[in-house]
């Protein structure tokens, strides 16, 4: 692809995408496009200064996560984290993609002197600034890193981290598999374009109907890297998604890529690039296998409702106000976050134990 003189884009992120398209010969795999749209320094959605997290559109935010909904989320998660700290003999919590800092605040308040240090690993400089303001009261107990160290010990938490990792799009059209990528049309508009590929979903998708789905090499590579670096400890990853039997169900033929802006969802990531979130549901079977193949043991897997109830959320609701109960109920109601969101736990360096968060309702057998 060549850019005609005078056709330079006014938006700096568009210019970066055009340069990437030109280097790639005019066709950019969707995962590379998604990486630029979300993480291009200073310009991608998670790297720019736009508001992102909040309960209402009036705040200028685009979506709400569990810690913003209710502090009872972090207070309940802290029960499982403290249990894991005790069983692994560690005293540090690591959080990936700490967002507004709400979850870190809740865990720090709940765990208190049980931990010596709270480390946040976040690529976004603007979000780091917001986190530092929110967590200033804890001083040097909190530190920030831009990448994983070579070796680490402790308990890792990641809430809605995996869904924001770039995915590859695979499309079965007229019985043939293609990788879906992005091109710039003659009219200057970004469009999808398919190229034949040897890539396939991890399981065969029944039928011959047209079918769009995702594969998750980056999320799986992240878990493998975590396994390589975590010498002793545990990890709890919380996100929306399914085991592969549900993920690649024949009826799920439109894929799961979704955008979020102003607390509304849409399915077109090729418009307003950099101004809205782009996500995909998580294939938890692929995540579990990536962890196991890299040396982690699965501690448990269940939906968010069961995990939080196991960790005492219902008892905490007894002392909450009516408004607090209403917000916290969204964490466990089946039609809200309770069923769609799942929790997977891993352990490294010690034998798995009867983790409190998975004590009832464990679904590891479905992975």
Topology:
Layout: H1 12-23, E1 28-29, H2 30-39, H3 66-69, H4 71-88, E2 92-96, H5 102-111, E3 117-121, H6 125-134, E4 142-145, E5 152-159, E6 168-173, E7 176-184, E8 190-196, E9 211-215, H7 217-229, E10 230-242, H8 244-247, E11 258-261, E12 264-266, E13 277-279, E14 282-283, H9 284-293, E15 297-303, H10 304-310, H11 313-317, H12 322-329, H13 334-338, E16 341-348
Parallel strand pairs: 2-3, 2-5, 3-4, 5-10, 10-14
Antiparallel strand pairs: 1-7, 6-7, 6-9, 7-8, 10-16, 11-12, 11-13, 15-16
Helix pairs in contact: 4-5, 7-9
Average pLDDT works out at: 94
Question: What's the number of extended β-strand segments?
Answer: 16
Biggest sheet record: 8 strands, mixed
What is the ordering of alpha helices and beta strands?
Answer: HEHHHEHEHEEEEEEHEHEEEEHEHHHHE
**Fraction in beta strands:** 15-25%
Distance between the termini: 43 Å
Low-pLDDT regions:
1-6
What multimeric state do the chains show?
A: single chain
Structural class category: alpha/beta
H/I helix tally: 13
Radius of gyration: 21 Å
Please give the share of residues in helix.
25-40%
Choose one word for the global shape. Answer: globular
Molecular structure report:
The structure is a single chain. The protein is of the alpha/beta class and 367 residues long. Helices cover 32% and strands 25% of the residues. It is built from 13 helices and 16 strands. It has helices at residues 12-23, 30-39, 66-69, 71-88, 102-111, 125-134, 217-229, 244-247, 284-293, 304-310, 313-317, 322-329, 334-338; strands at 28-29, 92-96, 117-121, 142-145, 152-159, 168-173, 176-184, 190-196, 211-215, 230-242, 258-261, 264-266, 277-279, 282-283, 297-303, 341-348. Strands 2, 3, 4, 5, 10, 14, 15 and 16 form an 8-stranded mixed sheet that branches. The protein is globular and about 60 Å long. Residues 1-6 have low confidence and may be disordered.
């Amino acid at each position: 692809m060549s850019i005609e003189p005078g056709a330079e884009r006014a938006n700096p992120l568009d210019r970066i995408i055009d340069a990437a398209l030109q280097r790639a010969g005019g066709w950019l795999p969707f995962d590379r496009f998604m990486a630029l749209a979300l993480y291009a320094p200073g310009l991608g959605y998670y790297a720019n200064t736009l508001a992102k997290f909040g309960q209402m559109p009036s705040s200028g935010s685009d979506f709400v996560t569990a810690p913003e909904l209710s502090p009872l989320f972090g207070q309940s998660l802290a029960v499982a984290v403290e249990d894991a700290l005790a069983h692994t003999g560690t005293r540090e919590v690591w959080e990936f993609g700490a967002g507004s800092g709400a979850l870190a605040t809740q865990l720090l308040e709940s765990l208190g002197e049980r931990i010596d240090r709270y480390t946040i690993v976040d690529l976004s400089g603007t979000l780091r600034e917001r986190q530092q303001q929110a967590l200033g009261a804890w001083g040097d107990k909190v530190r920030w890193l831009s990448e994983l160290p070579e070796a680490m010990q402790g308990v890792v938490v990641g809430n809605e981290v995996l869904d924001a990792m770039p995915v590859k799009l695979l499309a079965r059209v007229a019985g043939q598999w293609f990788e879906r990528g992005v091109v710039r049309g003659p009219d200057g508009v970004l469009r999808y374009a398919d190229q034949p590929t040897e890539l396939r979903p991890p399981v065969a998708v029944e039928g011959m109907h047209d079918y769009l789905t995702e594969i998750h090499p980056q999320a799986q590579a992240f878990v493998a890297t975590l396994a390589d670096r975590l010498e002793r400890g545990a990890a709890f990853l919380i996100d929306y998604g399914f085991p592969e039997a549900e993920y690649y169900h024949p009826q799920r033929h439109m894929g799961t890529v979704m955008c979020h802006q102003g607390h509304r969802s849409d399915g077109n990531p090729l418009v307003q690039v950099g101004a809205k979130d782009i996500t995909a549901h998580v294939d938890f079977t692929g995540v579990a296998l990536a962890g196991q193949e890299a040396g982690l043991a699965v501690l448990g897997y269940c939906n968010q409702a069961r995990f939080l109830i196991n960790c005492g959320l219902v008892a905490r609701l007894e002392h909450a106000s009516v408004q607090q109960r209403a917000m916290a109920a969204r964490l466990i109601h089946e039609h809200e976050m309770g069923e769609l969101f799942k929790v997977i736990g891993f352990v490294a360096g010690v034998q798995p134990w009867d983790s409190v968060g998975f004590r009832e309702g464990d679904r590891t057998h479905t992975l």
